Amino acid sequence: MADAFNDYEQLAVLPAGVRDFVAGGSGAELTLRRNRAALDAVTVTPRVLGGVGCPDTATTILGTAATLPIAVAPMAYQRLFHPEGELLLAAAAGSAGIPYVISTLSSLPLEKIAAVAPSWFQLYWLRDRTAVRALIDRATEAGCGALMVTVDVPVMGRRLRDVRNSFTLPPDVIAANLVDKSTEAHSTLNGASAVAAHTATAFDPAFSWRDLAWLRSVTEIPLLVKGILDPRDALAAVDAGADSVVVSNHGGRQFDGAPASIDALGSVVDALGNDFPVLLDSGIRGGTDVLKALAVGADAVLVGRPLLWALAVGAPDEALALLGRELRDAMLLAGCADLAAVADLATERNPWPIS
Ligand code: FNR
């Protein structure tokens, strides 16, 4: 049993190449490091004597009831970490009462995953519009409660750890949603080629606002746009019909030089107004980070890497229970009875180094 949500990275036993695939960022990993430094730099001033007792963490995220203001970030190829892959992590999310986001690049078919827990579907924009349409239809048919389109991957960021490790997927880990059903042939996203090389052939680097508006026109399920950092893009996403944006730099895996998500959050919330749902990810490593993100202005967060480490240990359910406990402890310590009280806390970006 881990003592803290962030302990699973140490506990996970994985091949070095897989570890680096998860832990790494793009380029010199400046944005990856900045995500943590910026979250560490946020201070939240606690309130006292509110008679809190037992804090209430429940919320609704885009029409989906959730016990915590948290969803599992979409992450590719989860059978790299556990033979049951996505099924185990999705089931843990379901038991914890939070949404699980199925990646376009899941290593099991989206229908199988959506059958074990309430899920959303993350869409990568592929060159083949027919394939995009087929994925939307499948996700809708499978009962996915929202569509999260990722907009910060016109190409995959250059992840130097993977390049130096010549990282490839093992033959039994495939992009299961992209297998051509008529021929049973694997798409270019499968096989032994390097992850970056094969995504380069399938992803559309010219994805545009016009495409996003088309996407909005063909589906009525709630639409989240993931990978927003500039308030002008946040406004454009709303114009194109988005129901929510995810302030994210993809965990430091895309443009190396982007601001930390937590630093970009305030201006996006200012642009969209307090009533528009805004999510955040990149660098969340425990309950205090969740509280900080909500205090700065997010309505909920996505959690990424720590849940892959927990999956590798076979304990994603325990990890989510720990994260919930950490959030409730943080709320008690900050004097918050519910998430509205968290949103009302005073925050500052405190430049004092802490180590
Ligand atoms: C990701 N991420 C991601 N995002 C996405 O939209 N589709 C995907 O398939 C993936 N795949 C993926 C794989 C791995 C191994 C990682 C680590 C990340 C990005 C993910 O959704 C999220 O934005 C970041 O992981 C958040 O940062 P933290 O919490 O990992 O720091």
TrEMBL record:
Pfam families: FMN_dh. Glyoxylate binds at residues 124, 159, 250, 253. Transmembrane segments: none annotated. Its cofactor is FMN. The keyword Oxidoreductase applies. SUPFAM superfamilies: FMN-linked oxidoreductases. FMN binds at residues 74-76, 103, 122, 150, 226, 248, 281-285, 304-305. It comes from the Bacteria. Keywords: Flavoprotein, FMN, Oxidoreductase. GO terms for molecular function: FMN binding; oxidoreductase activity, acting on CH-OH group of donors. Residues 1-352 form the FMN hydroxy acid dehydrogenase domain. The active site is at 250 (proton acceptor). Belongs to the FMN-dependent alpha-hydroxy acid dehydrogenase family. This is Alpha-hydroxy-acid oxidizing protein. It comes from Kribbella antibiotica. The lineage of its organism: Bacteria, Bacillati, Actinomycetota, Actinomycetes, Propionibacteriales.
